[in-house]
Amino acid sequence: MSKLGNLGARLHRGEISYDFVGKRKIWYGVSILITITAILGLAVRGLNMGIDFQGGAVFTTSKTSISVAQAESYAKEASGHDAVVQKLGTGGLRIQIAGMDTAKSDTTKAALAKDMKMDPESIAADLVGPSWGDEIANKAWEGLAIFMVLVVVYLAIAFEWRMAVAALVALIHDITITTGIYALVGFEVTPGTVIGLLTILGYSLYDTVVVFDSLKEQTKDITKQTRFTYSDIANQSINGTLVRSINTTVVALLPVAGLLFIGGGFLGAGTLNDISLSLFVGLAAGAYSSIFIATPLVADLKEAEPQMKALRKRVLAKRAQAAAEDELADTRGDEGPEDATPAVVGPRNQPASRTNRGRGRPSGKRR
């Protein structure tokens, strides 16, 4: 943990940095591939909507020795629809039949009691009409749409419209992946699933807003300097909050993983699966999108502005000039100083000595 803390401090100070924005095309490609897979899962398999959305009946039996597989077979034969059967802690069974006509509930109940060799009075029936299911579905879609609109308006006011657009794309990315996983896994979609979706969308926005706030603070006077482009500062913002995002995501995933894998899988509490799967997948997708999708997308949108294009040209020109000066300095360092005196090869011509100036003249008196 101390190493992780030191890593976070070094990332925050800028001593080390990972180029998330520079490699954004890779992240975009990965997200597109995952999204296409999720859409194909939705198109091919579709969502397993619960009775709260389709209408139907839930039959709860007393303690019985009938297996889950046998009960599914009996329920399908009695109702003509696929059934979801869960083993209860009391030893009874919960038989859920979605899309079944509620008028046939008494007939289905009698058939189940006969096949399972039970008293019809020992089987309790809860009915949900199709109109109620449609109302629940419409309310869920309305709530999701209102949530999206409010998010976009708030981010546009608090930050700017480009960040609002990037956050909206990240949210759609998270919803698509989560619902696609539901379609591929085949888990039932219940109101708990919708609650889970709204929860993870809020959590995803939390990580995104943290990065956006740091980015907004660091880019106040960005055009007055020539050291960094907008993409450089966006990358610094991601690195500065990276360990914080990882820590909060891991801490949130641990209890959700307990619900999903231990409660829903090991202990067999299937009712936990509808909300725990949406939370688990959504939290992971939200952390990914806030780092690899939202902020790089903001950088792309901002870099298209004329001011940011001009800033990029100035920054790149200054870096090119600095690189050329460094290269020239390295070249001079290899060749030696320009004003160095060249070495003398051969004998030097010494000036004539004053004592020898009179030599060669005829002797006699000086004139």
CATH topology of the largest domain: Multidrug efflux transporter AcrB transmembrane fold
CATH superfamily of the largest domain: Multidrug efflux transporter AcrB transmembrane domain
DSSP E strands, number = 6
**Approximate helicity band:** 55-70%
CATH architecture of the largest domain: Up-down Bundle
Classify the beta-strand content into a percent band: 5-15%
Adjacency order of strands in the biggest sheet? 3-4-2-5
Number of helices: 11
What is the CATH domain class of the largest domain?
Mainly Alpha
H/E series:
HHEHEHEEHEHHEHHHH
Number of domains: 2
Give structural notes.
The chain has two domains: 2-49 and 132-313, Up-down Bundle (Multidrug efflux transporter AcrB transmembrane fold); 56-128, 2-Layer Sandwich (Alpha-Beta Plaits), CATH 3.30.70. The protein has a four-stranded antiparallel beta sheet. Strands 1-6 form a two-stranded parallel ribbon. It has helices spanning 2-13, 24-44, 51-54, 68-79, 105-115, 130-158, 161-185, 191-218, 230-266, 273-303, 306-335, and strands at 48-49, 56-60, 83-87, 93-98, 124-128, 188-189. Helix 6 (130-158) runs antiparallel to helix 7 and helix 9 (230-266) runs antiparallel to helix 10 (273-303). The termini are far apart. A hairpin with a 5-residue loop joins strand 3 and strand 4. The protein has eleven helices and six strands. Helix content is 65%, strand content 7%. It has 367 residues and is α+β, with helices and mostly antiparallel strands.
